[in-house]
Design brief:
MetI-like; about 0% strand; transmembrane; mainly alpha; cell membrane; ABC transporter permease; membrane
């Protein structure tokens, strides 16, 4: 297990190093001068040149990259050009809505996707399978912004059951926060459940054809016991993979949903940073999202050994 962890952590370091290089280069290749945007139209060429020196943007790209990586290794993601605060503080201020939204949404996706995928597999070829497969295809095809606007129109505007946008007042209770997150979580959860339905169906179908499932039925075990104890447990490995990747993608991919619902999360922060060419915020945020993605994958690999002990034995 120690060898496995060291190997995975080494791979994670290499991936994050490549991401750091790509993020830095892509932000610098984007058109637009952040200093000119920061100072406005009234700034003179001398003002812009002085500001570039102040923020270190006059140095060669290689020097800027080395200085930035040096700061990152010390736990400092840099200073936002427009917010005038450390990038770490800006991320922490906006982390709560994004994390709660991602966890809420992946829970909804799992509650929809796993039972529906199992039902589609158990009643393969029936009308239930056809309906659930059609729903999964539609879910994978519907744009999130369109679905979000529909939910706002129905449940916020016409029925008035939920807030249309925002995250509540600064002193709002946890229940009020969840009420603001329900509609965006439904958008992400329902649409992402489509992938979970398809993976669960395929995995359960593979397990249903195994000899030990037929043996369990021949021994007289109830169908519910066979499905839960023998089928679902052994079908969980690919399902766990999809759930973990879905969570990682939601954390990094809530940009559209947060914009539609005006949530003050990380996605909204990235959009504003891109529009302003706020290099430190873009670089720091994307690097953190990549790190979360990498370490969620590592956690999934470790969870495999809990879900299926045979994987642990094979690794040894």
């Amino acid at each position: 297990m120690l060898h496995f962890l060291v190997k995975r952590l080494g791979g994670a370091v290499v991936v994050l190093a490549l991401v750091a290089v790509l993020v830095f280069l892509l932000t610098r290749l984007a058109s637009g001068d952040p200093v000119a945007l920061l100072l406005g139209d009234q700034a003179t060429a001398a003002d812009i040149a002085a500001a570039r020196v102040q923020y270190g943007l006059d140095k060669p790209l290689a020097t800027q990259f080395v200085l930035w990586i040096g700061q990152v290794l010390q736990g400092n993601l840099g200073q936002s050009l427009f917010l005038q605060m450390p990038v770490t503080h800006a991320l922490l201020e906006r982390a709560e809505p994004t994390m709660f939204l991602a966890l809420f949404a992946v829970s909804i996706a799992a509650l929809i996707g796993v039972p529906c995928g199992m039902a589609a597999a158990v009643w393969r070829g029936s009308w239930i399978d056809q309906v659930l497969s059609t729903i999964a295809m539609l879910g994978a095809s519907i744009p999130s912004f369109w679905f979000g606007l529909i939910l706002i129109q129905v449940f916020a505007v016409h029925l008035g059951w939920f807030p249309a946008s925002g995250y509540g007042d600064p002193d709002a209770s946890f229940g009020d926060r969840l009420q603001h997150l329900l509609l965006p979580a439904l958008v992400l959860g329902v649409l992402n459940s489509a992938l979970i339905i398809r993976f669960t169906r395929a995995s359960v179908l593979d397990i249903l054809g195994e000899d030990y499932v037929r043996t369990a039925r021949a021994k007289g075990l109830g169908e519910s016991v066979v499905l839960v104890k023998h089928v679902l447990r052994n079908a969980l490995v690919p399902v766990v993979t999809v759930l973990g990747l879905t969570l990682a993608l939601m954390i990094g991919g809530t940009v559209v949903t947060e914009t539609v619902f005006n949530l003050p999360g990380v996605g909204n922060l990235v959009v504003r940073a891109v529009l302003r060419r706020d290099y430190p915020v873009i670089q720091g945020t994307l690097l953190v999202i990549a790190a979360i993605y990498v370490f969620i994958n590592l956690a999934i690999d470790l969870l495999y050994t809990v879900v299926d002990p045979r994987i642990r034995l094979e690794g040894q």
